[in-house]
Give the backbone structure.
Amino acid sequence: MSGRWYEKDNNSTTNEKLNKEINEIKLYLERTRRTDILKCWPKSLIDFTVTHSPLSIHNVFTQIESIKLLEVISSCKVYQNYMLTPDNKSRAQVCNYTSMYAIMDTFYNREIQNLISLSKNLNTFQDLCENDRIALIKYGCTDIICLRSVAYYNQPNEYWTLVMDTNNSFIVKVDILKPKGDLYYGFKNYLNKIYFEWDSDPIILDL
């Protein structure tokens, strides 16, 4: 019994350190531009040097890990361009599959552009050959868009809010996918599991 309590305490301590680390990085990002961070570290050092000594201000990540984490979080800011705000007063509900396809086409085109912009800001992505970069975007974009859909999902009422611009948005209820069977139940299971873990903290999706 005492062993279980010891294991639980260790996990709690690790989570506290990780949360503290993430909060420090978020605060650091607010004060420092990504370009300033990368200027301090040669690209060869970032990509190839292995270090095991953590930063003096951090307890969890090494220097290289911290820099790469900052790079990812900074690149993910592209997803903040279109967020639900009080100005999005014009909201229409999508009632059929045909209308949903037309709206989702526009919405997903923008999300794909966001993903491309994000990827171009990652040094490891730029180091790949062109064919590999195209393949990663082509075969990974659908999964990433679906995973990030929880960011604009209302779990109590089971609908997505698709923000098209600063004034217009559409409500799409998950029930509209019922005719698709497995797709509907797959989304339902994923959204119900991830929603409370995510708890409206976008950094979880970024990582």
Summary: Strands lie at 90-94, 153-154, 159-163, 168-173.
